[in-house]
Amino acid sequence: MTEIPHWLDKQAQLHPNAHAIESPDEVLTFRQLQELSQQIAGGLYKLGVQEGDHIAILSGNHINFAAFIHAASYIGAIVVCLNTRLTEKELQFQLRDAKVSQCFADNDNYMKGARALKEMSDAISITNVDEIPRVEKETYEQFKEFIDMDEIFTMMYTSGTTGNPKAVMHTYGNHWFSAVASSLNLGLDTNDKWLACLPLFHVGGFSLLIKNVVYGMPIVLLERFDLHLVHKQIKNNQVTLISIVTVMLQRMLKEKPLNYPSSFRGALLGGGPVPKTLLHEADSENLPVFQSYGLTETSSQIATLSPSDSFRKLGSAGKALGPATLKVFKDGTPAPPNVVGEIHVKGPMVAKGYFGHPSVNDDYFATGDLGYLDEEGFLFVVDRVKDMLISGGENVYPAEIESVLTQIKGVQEAGVTGTAHKEWGEVPIAFIVKSNLDEVTKEQVTAFCQNRLASFKVPHTIHFVSELPRNASNKLVRRKLKDLIDGGGYE
């Protein structure tokens, strides 16, 4: 067991009056963030939250989200981060699967959470985050002074290729080493200030809350990606770094010239390789782009490509970060350079497993992604999580959508794949074999999906076909779905 002093307590001691979190409406110093987090922790105690409890947070990007996760750490409760874009049905599954005892939601999501819980027989309560009692110092002696790096801190859902979402269990150590690895890779300047506009319930956004308390670095928290506010913060508020996905970079570059100050160090980009034309645009505007590769299971990025290598290694995700190792295996052995195989990763930021499922092997973790290493050790990702597509930075798994489609009366079979989209990068499209030609329409399919899937998972277009492409084992061959469009045979 490895323990360190509680990271928020340490920053409140070292830099009590330094800015911790800034938003357009509020600024908290590290001491104020500590006090607020401890008051909320006292309130959680009052509401019956105990060490080891699984408590869910259904919230957008608010300062109280940050205070809540630190409050949970003072108690030793495990935070289940819920995607606010999920439907009530999806929320119900995750609340049950994660064995959540209490759910906490912001104003915008409280009613959605309440409706989801109303249909469940489980004894789960829901509380508005803003209405958690603020309890003062009489409970402070109960708070954890040290963080056990091996203890589970958070659970975040990711979908497997079977379409069943699984909760990735992150330890404090996973988050700590992810932050340390990022610092070793990008460097850390005393004047750094990171702009957070990715959702905090995703590991890419959440990781900034950890960098905040590990580095003692201020973050600027926006509720969402707002182009006007992003430009304003970079130009006028000494922001040096920003985490974004490709579609956000495209929008930033629409307002040229950017005229960003020289102190701006660049954008850490997730969600796949950047098109060459977009890289050239960014380069012409002196906007450095750090392309990265990561998974929920790796607690954020695990490989990053330096801007200096962007054009020399076009399409690459870079090399593994300092504490991490990355290999490509084909047929159970390391693949030679430029030979495609499955990407495996290892390091202290890699999660130990999924809640309720067998533990991940302590050796290399098989990502399910296909890629290759070139002669210099640069990683190129060929296919992400086999058939997964990325729409606006969100991971979309075809099997999950297919599972919903086949619940529709009149749908005999369904296959889903992705197609290029100018704004979102990719969007899902569906191919359906009807059981009765007159029984289901495209409008009915869309309406059914909208009630059961997050908006980014709803098929962008629907094609009715006579049969789906399958191999000799009768397994669906998704890569051949779009051949149905090219060859006709759909309506």
From TrEMBL:
The entry's keywords: ATP-binding, Ligase, Menaquinone biosynthesis, Nucleotide-binding
Give start and end of each AMP-dependent synthetase/ligase domain: 8-355
Q: Which is an annotated GO molecular function term of this record?
A: o-succinylbenzoate-CoA ligase activity
Superkingdom of the source species: Bacteria
What the entry lists under Pfam families is as follows: AMP-binding, AMP-binding_C
The reaction(s) annotated as catalysed by this protein in its Swiss-Prot or TrEMBL entry are: 2-succinylbenzoate + ATP + CoA = 2-succinylbenzoyl-CoA + AMP + diphosphate
Pathway involvement of the protein, from the record? Quinol/quinone metabolism; 1,4-dihydroxy-2-naphthoate biosynthesis; 1,4-dihydroxy-2-naphthoate from chorismate: step 5/7; Quinol/quinone metabolism; menaquinone biosynthesis
PROSITE patterns cross-referenced by the UniProt entry: AMP_BINDING
Q: Where is the AMP-binding enzyme C-terminal domain?
A: 400-475
Function text: Converts 2-succinylbenzoate (OSB) to 2-succinylbenzoyl-CoA (OSB-CoA).
Q: What is this protein called?
A: 2-succinylbenzoate--CoA ligase
The record lists the organism as Halobacillus campisalis
Question: Which gene does this sequence derive from?
Answer: menE
